[in-house]
Structures are given as C-alpha cells and as structure tokens.
Design brief:
mainly alpha, 2 strands
Length: 198
C-alpha cells in the first residue's frame, strides 16, 4: 500500500490516535538515543532513494554512523539544527500551537490536564480551531466505526470509509478556507512591516 492509497489520510487526520498523543509536547523524541525523521525540505524531495534526518545522542551510535560513512555503507553529513526544525515545522505546530489549544479545550471541559511546556491558550486562527475539532472528532469516531464495522473476522472498509469521508470532506473544506485566509493576513503583516521600517 502506497502513501497516497489511504495511509496518508489515516496518519495526517489522526485516525485511531490514542488520546494521550493529543497532549504530547516531545517533538524530537528527546530521551531516545537516536531520533530519525523525514527530511521534508525542497532540496531532498526529489531524492527517490529517500533522505532522513537523525539526531544522535549516543557517542557509540555516533561513532557507528561515522564509521558507516567512512566505509561508504551510508551517506552521512552534518546539517544545521535550523534545517531540521524547518523540515519538522508541521510537528512543531502540532506540539506547540495545537497542543496549547487542545489544553485549553480540555480545561474548558473540566478535564484534568497535564503540565506542559506551553500553557493552555485559545489564541490560534479560526480555521485551525475548526481543523483541531474535526480531527479530534475523527480520532474518536474512527475507533468506534472500526469496531462497528468489524464482524469478528474482517472490517467492512467501504462502510467505514463512507462514514469517515464525511469528516474528511469537511476538513478539506476548512483547510481550503484556512489557506485562503492566510494570504490576506500575511500580506497585511508584510505591508505593516514595510511601513514601520520607513
């Protein structure tokens, strides 16, 4: 199964995600020996063999990686941490801005919330709020629908997909609206910056 065959939707829209993941603020698996991540940058997107970024926190593993590079078993090079952050901006947004809003929503609902590096906040865009609400609903409903469409041996995927498509289509609509709304805001910011610098 390829990414575009449905896996992307399951991953991106957070189907089946445990609720604990909604409150995770660890962007780079910071207590692991090695963190491996996608290199989502234009300069690597055309590499059909694939490129990954990794952060090594273990001297032994770092030595193994350098040795593999010397022996031409792997291609390895250093990269600025700013590039790694740029490649993972989507994750940074989820685990900072979106997390702050999820904490706010949980607090408003009277749920106990864990102490995090960002405080609860409702200060994100209207379209982002809608996106989070729809994804949270998809997260819960996907689990219920999967069990409802499971007969003990197999899942009726057509019925499952049909129900989930209602949420997906709604999310597509709000993503388009958010994309359109972003342009005027950015244009106003640029003009304001220019005027203030004059």
């Amino acid at each position: 199964m390829f990414w575009k065959d449905g896996v992307s939707e399951v991953w991106t829209y957070r189907w089946f995600t445990p609720n604990a993941c909604n409150f995770c603020d660890d962007i780079f698996a910071e207590v692991s020996d090695v963190t491996v991540m996608d290199a989502w940058l234009p300069e690597y997107s055309k590499d059909s063999k694939g490129t990954n970024f990794l952060i090594s926190r273990s001297p032994q593993i770092s030595d193994l990686l350098r040795q593999g590079g010397k022996e031409k078993q792997i291609v390895i090079e250093d990269i600025a941490i700013e590039k790694v952050i740029q490649a993972q901006l989507g994750v940074v947004n989820i685990k900072r801005n979106q997390l702050a809003y999820r904490l706010y929503r949980a607090k408003q609902s009277g749920l106990p919330i864990p102490s995090k590096r960002v405080p609860p906040s409702r200060n994100i865009g209207f379209a982002s709020k809608k996106e989070i609400k729809i994804k949270d609903a998809m997260q819960a409903v996907s689990k219920e629908l999967f069990l409802k469409n499971y007969d003990g041996e197999k899942v009726d995927l057509s019925s499952f997909d049909e129900s989930m498509n209602i949420f997906s289509n709604n999310l597509h609509k709000w993503n388009r609206i958010g994309h359109i709304m972003r342009y005027p805001v950015n244009a106003i910011r640029k003009v304001k910056k220019i005027l203030l610098n004059v």
